[in-house]
């Protein structure tokens, strides 16, 4: 296609793929990343898929609303074709369905919103490039990141086989009510040990004493305190995969949760156990992957908290908890994974 | 369900009321005074019959009647009356009554037995009475013979006595004249003769006396017979005693009676005795018969029955009273119920009116809310479209301007450095060595910098890029402006009133709003030469957006075509036809699509108000909207709008139609 322009390949330069149906956007992006990057642009999703098959990209940035193929569909292809390519959505407007798809199906790294700030865009893309480089360098060719499908169907990867069979993964359910916990206790008892916390204090009690692989958090998406907690938690414990359960979907909040709290999966209430179990298995296998290759934890990096949240009362309250808990948790996980000190 | 059970309840209550009424009615009519009177009459008959019986017994006794038929005839009647009574008493099922009837029966039986005895005794009595005179006559006859014989013997004997006396007197006179032995013997002879004669006279006397005794005897018997007859007629104890004594006496003196009559006397005596005994017994029997308490028993039954009847009547009276009360109650109930129903229906009607008012109000409120919700929906849709439509060019503009700014920094530096270089070059070379060397280094530095900058700028045609970015930014800003203008046109916020608009303008502004979901569709516009339509174009734009959105959503996967045509349907009507080649609407739901809340979209993606609101808007404009659809081929919506809408539309908008007509 004439729409695509392949800049001359330079081995050292990071390679970026921009997909947007609006040529002026592509022009602008090309100008922003004019030096130091090896960029490829196209207005056609199908062409982008073809490019992913033939060429290696560090980062793919796609618009969501495009004719013929949506951004989520394209990133799904990218996830399958080139899992180490960091996926970013750049959208002017997204409905919640698209955002849920981006979180749960393609594990999008970041959401970027139009109009953007060139500096911030560059910064995000550079971080993504760094992550991609790290992933590419530290992921053995044979053991790629488990895909959603393979993770769901066959959670027994090489690493789990090596682990002692009696060692069950710990999954913490954070829910003020006990219904979810009692329901979950019937599921996957051979693989998972379920823990229950009804308050922030209990969460820290558990985190202090037990190496939790995944957390299921039922919370109010509109609650500032809850969001602050999730963001700070992920910042402090990037190796814990968080499955969020909310009763409402708000696109702005969802974008915030993926960018700042890096939630692993999102479920709209009421949560179905089958779906939840599948997501828990995904989370566990991801945790295993990080255990085997601690560098992968970089993918769990979050953006800095917004000033308003960082300065909120709940953030300050939580800060105390984290400070107290940090030491013991750090030692605990350093024992287990040995990467905490490094990072 | 509820109505059915309530209906059933009413039926049950009515049935119970009617049942109760009939129960009371039948019970208050149960006693038949006719049958009661008949029963009592029967008892009277019994009594009458009994007294007749008694009379007949007496009549039979006094031989007024000579046969016993009147005495046995009542038996059959008694039996029939009693059996009738039996039957009647059965109805009462009362042991007492039964027993009392049985009492009457046994009493009558007892009386019958007595009467039978009476009949037997009476026969004997009558027999004795009949044969007693015969026996007496026999005695009389025999006595008369005896007497006659005695009397004639006496008179025969006595007849010689006076002769003897005459002989004696003669002898005595002879003797006196002839005193002679002969004479004496003659006298003795006469005396002996006289003595014999005297004996004979004595005998005659005896015979006569005997005859006289017989006469006495006769009268004695006569007295006895008379006494017996008297006793038979008037049985008093005096007569009985006399008779008894007479009979004993007669029996005691039987040997003194002439033998010829002894047997007859005996016969008479036995008759007399029989009469005496039988009559005495008969009196007792009659007394006993008359004392047999048939009437008393009947009276008892009568009393009991009367009591029963009175009870029944009393009960019936009670039932009647009850029926009266019940009827009054039922009537009251019926009237009360009907009153309540009337009142209820009145209040219910009021309540219903209130309810309908309230619900109408609620419906209106709901409708307002729904219309509002739909407006918000449309607004959301519009905002979504506009956000995307604006954000994309805005992003390009922002990024472009930032980039331009960065590039212009380089350009500015280039110009600065170039200026410095130029001014340095234009300054005269310093005379001293040191100054010259410094100028050279400075020049070299500046030159290198300028070259560097120049290279950087030329490497990607900086000015060209800036030029392009700015050009594109202007274009994008124009585009944003266009979006804003179209948004305004779409919503017509500036003129929400009815005005003459060419429908194509509405279609164009709607298509701008719809652009974001029409991206992968082919759109064909075939606009005819139409006259402006007096309409609320904002509302019509809503309709057009809805239809176009439906068409776009009906497209399977990618591709598809939407054709929008406009034409004049007639000189006074404009027609808009929107055709798609989408999935089509199944025949079974084609009639439902105009209903409020109907939707085929998955939950959450639509309120289902779309087409019903579309139809409402078109209708308020006096137009029509129709749909033809075939599954797999596509759907066509046809809107026909009059150029001049009905006056009601102006009223809705608080405008006057006339002024509008003048304007247009």
Features:
heterodimer; A: 343 residues; alpha/beta; 6-stranded mixed β-sheet; 14 helices; 11 strands; 16% strand; disordered C terminus; B: 664 residues; alpha+beta; 5-stranded mixed β-sheet; two-stranded antiparallel sheet; 7 strands; rod-shaped
Topology:
The complex is a heterodimer of chains A (343) and B (664).
Chain A: E1 5-6, E2 15-19, H1 23-32, E3 38-42, H2 45-54, E4 59-62, H3 71-81, E5 86-91, H4 96-104, E6 110-113, H5 118-138, H6 148-153, H7 158-162, E7 169-174, H8 179-184, E8 192-197, H9 200-209, E9 212-218, H10 224-236, E10 241-246, H11 251-261, E11 265-268, H12 273-292, H13 307-310, H14 313-336
Parallel strand pairs in A: 2-3, 2-4, 4-5, 5-6, 7-8, 7-9, 9-10, 10-11
Antiparallel strand pairs in A: 1-3
Helix pairs in contact in A: 2-3, 4-11, 9-14, 10-14
Chain B: H1 2-28, H2 33-61, H3 69-92, H4 95-177, H5 181-233, H6 237-252, H7 259-291, H8 294-426, H9 433-459, H10 462-491, E1 499-501, H11 503-514, E2 522-527, E3 533-535, H12 537-553, E4 561-570, E5 573-580, H13 587-590, H14 610-620, E6 624-630, E7 634-642, H15 647-652, H16 657-663
Parallel strand pairs in B: 2-4
Antiparallel strand pairs in B: 1-3, 4-5, 5-7, 6-7
Helix pairs in contact in B: 1-8, 2-3, 2-8, 3-4, 4-5, 4-7, 4-8, 5-6, 5-7, 6-7, 8-9, 8-10, 10-11, 11-12, 12-14
How many individual β-strands of chain A? 11
Order of helices and strands of chain B: HHHHHHHHHHEHEEHEEHHEEHH
Helicity range of the residues of chain A? 40-55%
Low-confidence stretches of chain B: 658-664
Query: Percent of residues of chain B in beta strands?
Result: 5-15%
Biggest interface, which chains? Answer: A-B, 28 and 29 residues
Q: Which H/E pattern describes the elements of chain A? A: EEHEHEHEHEHHHEHEHEHEHEHHH
Task: Report the biggest beta sheet of chain A as strand number plus sense, adding barrel if it closes.
Answer: 6 strands, mixed
Give unreliable regions of chain A as ranges: 6-10, 141-164, 329-343
Q: Rounded to an integer, what's the Rg of chain A over CA atoms?
A: 20 Å
Mean pLDDT of chain B: 81
- Secondary structure class of chain B reads alpha+beta
Q: How many β-strand runs of chain B? A: 7
Order of strands across the biggest sheet of chain A? 1-3-2-4-5-6
């Amino acid at each position: 296609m004439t729409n695509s322009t392949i800049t001359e390949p330079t081995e050292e330069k990071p390679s970026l793929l921009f997909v947007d149906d609006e040529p002026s956007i592509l022009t602008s992006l090309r100008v922003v990343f004019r030096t130091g990057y090896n960029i490829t642009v196209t207005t056609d999703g199908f062409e982008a898929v073809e490019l992913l098959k033939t060429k290696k990209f560090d980062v793919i940035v796609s618009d969501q609303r495009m004719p013929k193929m949506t951004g989520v569909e394209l990133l799904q292809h990218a996830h399958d074709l080139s899992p180490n390519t960091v996926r970013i959505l750049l959208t002017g407007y997204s409905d919640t369905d698209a955002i849920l798809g981006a979180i749960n199906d393609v594990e999008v790294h970041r959401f970027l919103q139009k109009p953007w700030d060139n500096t911030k865009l560059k910064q995000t893309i550079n971080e993504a490039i760094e992550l991609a480089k790290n992933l590419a360098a530290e992921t053995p060719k044979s053991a790629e990141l488990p895909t959603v499908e393979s993770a769901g169907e066959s959670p027994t990867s090489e690493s789990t086989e090596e682990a002692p069979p009696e060692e069950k993964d710990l999954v913490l359910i954070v829910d003020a009510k006990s219904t979810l916990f009692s329901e979950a206790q019937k599921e996957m008892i051979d693989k998972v040990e379920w823990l229950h916390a009804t308050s922030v204090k209990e969460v820290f009690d558990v985190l202090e004493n037990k190496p939790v692989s995944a957390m299921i958090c039922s919370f109010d998406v509109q609650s500032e305190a809850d969001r602050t907690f999730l963001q700070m938690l992920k910042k402090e414990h990037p190796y814990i995969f968080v499955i969020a359960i909310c009763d409402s979907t708000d696109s702005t909040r969802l974008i915030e949760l993926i960018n700042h709290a890096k939630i692993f999966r999102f479920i709209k209430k009421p949560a179905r156990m089958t779906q939840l179990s599948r997501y828990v298995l995904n989370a566990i296998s991801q945790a295993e992957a990080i255990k085997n290759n601690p560098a992968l934890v970089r993918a769990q990096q979050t953006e800095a908290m917004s000033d308003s949240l960082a300065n909120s009362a709940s953030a300050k309250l939580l800060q105390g908890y984290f400070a107290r808990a940090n030491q013991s948790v750090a030692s605990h996980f350093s024992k287990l994974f040995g990467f905490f000190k490094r990072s | 369900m509820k109505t059915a059970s309530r209906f059933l309840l009413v039926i049950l209550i009515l049935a119970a009321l009617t049942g109760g009424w009939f129960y009371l009615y039948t019970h208050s009519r149960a006693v038949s005074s006719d049958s009661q009177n008949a029963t009592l009459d029967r008892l009277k008959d019994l009594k009458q019959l009994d007294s007749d019986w008694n009379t007949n017994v007496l009549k039979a006794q006094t031989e007024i009647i000579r046969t016993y038929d009147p005495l046995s005839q009542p038996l059959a009647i008694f039996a029939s009356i009693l059996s009738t009574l039996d039957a009647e008493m059965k109805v009462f099922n009362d042991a007492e009554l039964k027993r009392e009837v049985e009492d009457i029966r046994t009493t009558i039986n007892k009386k019958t037995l007595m009467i039978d005895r009476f009949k037997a005794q009476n026969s004997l009595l009558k027999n004795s009475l009949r044969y007693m005179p015969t026996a007496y006559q026999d005695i009389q006859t025999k006595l008369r013979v005896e007497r006659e014989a005695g009397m004639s013997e006496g008179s025969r004997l006595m007849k010689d006595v006076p002769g003897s006396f005459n002989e004696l007197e003669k002898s005595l006179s002879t003797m006196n004249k002839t005193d002679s032995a002969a004479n004496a013997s003659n006298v003795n002879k006469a005396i002996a003769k006289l003595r014999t004669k005297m004996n004979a006279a004595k005998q005659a006397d005896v015979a006569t006396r005997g005859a006289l005794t017989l006469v006495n005897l006769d009268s004695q018997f006569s007295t006895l017979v008379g006494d017996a007859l008297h006793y038979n007629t008037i049985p008093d104890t005096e007569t009985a005693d006399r008779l008894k004594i007479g009979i004993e006496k007669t029996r005691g003196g039987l040997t003194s009676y002439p033998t010829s009559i002894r047997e007859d006397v005996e016969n008479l005596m036995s008759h007399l005795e029989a009469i005496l005994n039988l009559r005495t017994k008969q009196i007792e029997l009659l007394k006993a018969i008359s004392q047999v308490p048939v009437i008393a028993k009947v009276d008892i039954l009568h009393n009991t029955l009367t009591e029963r009847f009175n009870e029944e009547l009393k009960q019936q009276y009670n039932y009647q009273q009850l029926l009266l009360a019940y009827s009054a109650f039922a009537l009251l109930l019926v009237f009360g119920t009907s009153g309540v129903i009337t009142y209820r229906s009145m209040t219910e009607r009021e309540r219903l009116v209130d309810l309908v008012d309230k619900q109408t109000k609620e419906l209106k409120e709901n409708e307002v809310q729904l219309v509002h919700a739909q407006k918000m929906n449309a607004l959301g849709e519009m905002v979504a479209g506009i956000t995307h439509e604006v954000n994309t060019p805005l992003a390009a503009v922002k990024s472009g301007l930032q980039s331009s700014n960065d590039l212009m920094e380089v350009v500015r530096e280039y110009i600065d450095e170039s200026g410095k270089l130029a001014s340095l070059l234009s300054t005269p070379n310093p005379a001293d060595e040191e100054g010259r060397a410094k100028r050279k280094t400075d020049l070299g530095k500046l030159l290198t910098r300028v070259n560097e900058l120049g290279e950087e700028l030329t490497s990607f045609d900086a000015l060209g890029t800036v030029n392009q970015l700015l050009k594109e930014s202007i274009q994008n800003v124009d585009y944003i402006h266009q979006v804003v203008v179209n948004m305004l046109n779409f919503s017509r916020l500036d003129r929400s009133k009815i005005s003459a608009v060419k429908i194509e303008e509405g279609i164009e502004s709607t298509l701008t709003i719809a652009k974001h979901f029409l991206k992968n569709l082919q759109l064909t516009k075939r606009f005819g030469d139409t006259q402006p339509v007096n309409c609320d174009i904002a509302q019509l734009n809503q309709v057009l957006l809805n239809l176009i959105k439906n068409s776009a959503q009906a497209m399977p996967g990618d591709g598809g075509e939407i054709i929008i045509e406009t034409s004049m349907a007639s000189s006074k009507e404009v027609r808009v036809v929107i055709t798609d080649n989408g999935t089509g609407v199944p025949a079974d739901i084609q009639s439902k699509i105009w209903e409020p809340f109907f939707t085929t979209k998955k939950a959450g993606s639509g309120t289902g108000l779309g087409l019903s609101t579309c139809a409402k808007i078109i209708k308020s404009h006096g137009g029509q909207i129709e749909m033809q659809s075939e599954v797999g081929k596509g759907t066509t919506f046809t809107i026909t709008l009059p150029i001049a809408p009905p006056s009601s539309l102006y009223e809705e908008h608080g405008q006057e139609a006339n002024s509008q007509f003048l304007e247009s």
